Structures are given as structure tokens and as C-alpha cells.
């Protein structure tokens, strides 16, 4: 199994700290300006504007930092692990999904909600994203956190129709999907584990 998480801001811990400090400084500077304007204008309107700006800022922070996507590919069976207590290999529990399954989730903080689960056999096309795709898809799931130029599109059979997922996989995720397609995982029985 290989799993990748992406968020819209893609900030490191150091950048998060800098962003937090900027937010605090901005809050106090805007608060001081709001108090000054409230005294000069003798009105509460600057206070309402300030509260609205703070709420919009919190919402933007929420959308950029707390919401993201997680992609999971089950690309090989679990291997037994060596247990030195018994001087033998110990079998491990199997995955909850068979090899060749792709899971796409929307995550808020650490909690994920599955948006789409599909089998590699249902993949019609996996390539760099192009707005002028030749496929006529009924549904498009945009699960990318970056720019369209870096995104990939995965066109798949979704019942009787074709659907597309636009997402931002890293090189290892791309390699696992391509390997599954090339190795013929799609030829194995769907219930094989």
C-alpha cells in the first residue's frame, strides 16, 4: 500500500509558523485600525467590517490548511514479517481492499471521507491532465491541490458511463499505478486478495 496526502497550501512546519505569526500581527494591526476608525467616524461599522474580515480569514485558512486529499493505492500483497521470538516468519493481516484498488479521500484535519474507490481494471486512461481531453466524461472529480499543469487525469468506467478524477500524484504514486496497469493486475479476478 502506498498513500499520499496533499493539502492546498502545501506549507512546511516552518512556513506554518511564519504564516501564524503574520496572522497574529495582521489581527492586531487591523484591530488597532478598526478602533481608530471607530473613534474618528463615531460609528460601529468598522467593527462589523473587522469581524467580517476575521471570519473570512478563518474560512480561507480552513480551506487552505485543514482540507486536503489523500490518495491510496494497494499495489502489492503484504509480506510476512520475521518474528525473532519464534525464529519464523509471521503472516500479517491482509489489506481491507484487494491489490489493484485505488482510494480517493477528502480529508479534514486527519479524518478522511472516501470520495471514490475504484479497481485498476476500470481505468481507461491515466495521463497528464489536459483541459481538451478526448474523453466525454459525465462526472469530474477535482481532487487536486496544485496547479493544473502538474495534475494528472484518470479516466475510468463508472457503471455505464465514463468519469474522470483530476489529482496531483507524486512520482511514486504514478509509478505504482503504471506498474499495476502494465503488470496486468487488471487481468486477475476482482475478488482476489
Word description of this protein:
Strands 1-2-5-6 form a 4-stranded antiparallel β-sheet. It has a 4-stranded mixed β-sheet with strand order 7-9-10-8, covered by helices on one side. A two-stranded antiparallel ribbon has the order 3-4. It has helices at 13-41, 45-66, 171-183, and strands at 2-7, 67-73, 81-83, 88-90, 101-108, 111-119, 123-128, 139-143, 152-158, 161-167. 33% of the residues lie in helices and 32% in strands. The chain contains 3 helices and 10 strands; from the N terminus they run βααβββββββββα. A hairpin with a 2-residue loop joins β9 and β10.
Using brief descriptors, characterize the structure shown.
single chain; 193 residues; alpha+beta; four-stranded antiparallel sheet; 3 helices; 33% helix; elongated
Task: Describe the structure concisely.
This protein has 193 residues and is of the alpha+beta class.
Amino acid at each position: 500500500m502506498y498513500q499520499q496526502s496533499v493539502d492546498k497550501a502545501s506549507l512546511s512546519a516552518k512556513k506554518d509558523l511564519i504564516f501564524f505569526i503574520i496572522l497574529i500581527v495582521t489581527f492586531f494591526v487591523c484591530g488597532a485600525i478598526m478602533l481608530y476608525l471607530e473613534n474618528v467616524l463615531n460609528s460601529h461599522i468598522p467593527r462589523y467590517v473587522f469581524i467580517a474580515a476575521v471570519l473570512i480569514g478563518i474560512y480561507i485558512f480552513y480551506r487552505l490548511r485543514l482540507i486536503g486529499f489523500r490518495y491510496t493505492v494497494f499495489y502489492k500483497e503484504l509480506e510476512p514479517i520475521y518474528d525473532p521470538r519464534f525464529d519464523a516468519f509471521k503472516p500479517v493481516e491482509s489489506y481491507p481492499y484487494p491489490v489493484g484498488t485505488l482510494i480517493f479521500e477528502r480529508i479534514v484535519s486527519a479524518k478522511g471521507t472516501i470520495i471514490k474507490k475504484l479497481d485498476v481494471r476500470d481505468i481507461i486512461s491515466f495521463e497528464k491532465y489536459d483541459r481538451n481531453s478526448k474523453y466525454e466524461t459525465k462526472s469530474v472529480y477535482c481532487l487536486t491541490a496544485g496547479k493544473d499543469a502538474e495534475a494528472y487525469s484518470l479516466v475510468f468506467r463508472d457503471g455505464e458511463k465514463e468519469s474522470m478524477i483530476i489529482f496531483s500524484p507524486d512520482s511514486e504514486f504514478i509509478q505504482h499505478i503504471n506498474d499495476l496497469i502494465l503488470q496486468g493486475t487488471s487481468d486477475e479476478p476482482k475478488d482476489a486478495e
